[in-house]
Structure formats: C-alpha cells, structure tokens
C-alpha cells in the first residue's frame, strides 16, 4: 500500500470514530440514560445496585402515566427513582393500606408480594394529599410519586410534588445484574 492509501484509510477511521462518538453523545443526551440505583426505596421492584436504562424521549412526546417508574431530579445533586401515583387534577389518600384517587379505591398489584411480608401495621401509613403537600388536588404540571418500599422511601410525602419538567424519563430496562434482566412495564 502507498502512503497515500494509508493516510486515506486512517482518515476514514478517524471520521468513523468521530461520527460514532457524536452519535453516542446525542443518544445519551436525548434518548437514553443509564442509572445505578442507590438505596432501598423501590424494593422489592428495584434493588440497590440495579442498573437501569431510562427512556428520555417518551416524556418529550407525552406525559407520564400512573404507576410508571420514573427518574427525576430531586435536588441539584441527586436523581431519584419512584413510581407515579397521582396525576394533575387528582386527590390522593391512603386509608388502611389502600390507595384512593378522587375517592375511588385503586389497586396496586405491584405491592402484593411486599405486603405479605409485613408482620404488623401497614406498608403505607394513612394520609391525604392535603396533609402532606398542602394541596387539595395535584396542580397541572406536577405528579405525586412514592417508592414501593413505603416504610423506607423519601418521596412526595416528604419532598412534595414533582414538577414534570424535572422528570428525566421512564425506566424501561433493568440490565444488571444480568440474571434479573427485565423490560420494565
């Protein structure tokens, strides 16, 4: 090969690597993000140390739905993973370990296994939206979130309602540990 062919081939490799890096940065910025879970607030659904893929694009096209698992900016230094419980315009209450939205009882089947292991008391203490946030209904542009491990979760009961602008995206995939690989629905 001539030096001209060598330099052309080198230039082709540099361009390919550059394009791949730009694509990777764009995907990370606008489409998907990976997260490592720290803490036990989402147990047993999500465990400490799990690695997740978060879809950042979905909520640019639509809004979260009830029971979605989301990642949001809790403060300047931390992102939290929680489950969306209440939507704009709704009244939330818990009584005797049951969720009530606008006075109607709503099932939370993802908590069934966890509730079996509670030896005394309730998984979720009684409260109303107004008691914990001072709001009668969830305002437009906000959601009420909770961790599945209700006894050990810092969530909307403590930090207030989450502004939808602070939502990073929806958890779509657990990829680590590999034996727990799962598409999250």
Draw up the topology in text.
Layout: H1 3-30, E1 32-36, E2 51-55, H2 58-61, E3 69-73, E4 79-86, E5 92-95, E6 98-101, E7 104-106, H3 112-116, E8 127-128, H4 129-133, E9 142-146, H5 156-159, E10 162-163, E11 167-176, E12 182-183
Antiparallel strand pairs: 1-2, 2-11, 3-4, 3-11, 4-9, 5-6, 5-8, 6-7, 9-10, 11-12
Plain-language structure description:
- This protein is α+β, with helices and mostly antiparallel strands and 185 residues long.
- The protein folds into two domains: 1-30; 32-183, Umud Fragment, subunit A (Ribbon), CATH 2.10.109.
- It contains five helices and twelve strands.
- The protein has helices at residues 3-30, 58-61, 112-116, 129-133, 156-159, and strands spanning 32-36, 51-55, 69-73, 79-86, 92-95, 98-101, 104-106, 127-128, 142-146, 162-163, 167-176, 182-183.
- The strands form two sheets. Strands 1, 2, 3, 4, 9, 10, 11 and 12 form an eight-stranded antiparallel β-sheet that branches. It has a four-stranded antiparallel β-sheet with strand order 7-6-5-8.
- GO terms for molecular function: serine-type endopeptidase activity; signal peptidase activity.
- Keywords: Cell membrane, Hydrolase, Membrane, Protease, Transmembrane, Transmembrane helix.
- Its EC number is 3.4.21.89.
């Amino acid at each position: 090969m001539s030096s001209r062919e060598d330099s052309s081939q080198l230039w082709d490799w540099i361009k390919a690597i550059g394009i791949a890096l730009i694509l990777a940065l764009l995907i990370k910025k606008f489409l998907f993000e990976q997260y490592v879970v720290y803490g036990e607030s989402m147990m047993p659904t999500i465990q400490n140390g799990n690695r997740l893929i978060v879809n950042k694009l979905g909520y640019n096209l639509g809004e979260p739905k009830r029971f979605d698992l989301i990642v949001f900016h809790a403060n300047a230094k931390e992102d939290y993973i929680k489950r969306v419980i209440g939507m704009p315009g709704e009244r939330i209450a818990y009584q005797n370990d049951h969720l009530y939205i606008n006075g109607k009882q709503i099932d939370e089947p993802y908590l069934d296994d966890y509730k079996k292991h509670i030896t005394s008391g309730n998984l979720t203490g009684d409260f109303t939206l107004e008691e914990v946030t001072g709001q009668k209904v969830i305002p437009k542009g906000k959601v009420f979130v909770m961790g599945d491990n209700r006894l050990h979760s810092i969530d909307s009961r403590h930090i207030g309602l989450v502004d939808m602008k602070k939502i990073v995206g929806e958890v779509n995939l657990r990829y680590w540990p590999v034996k727990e690989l799962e598409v999250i629905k």
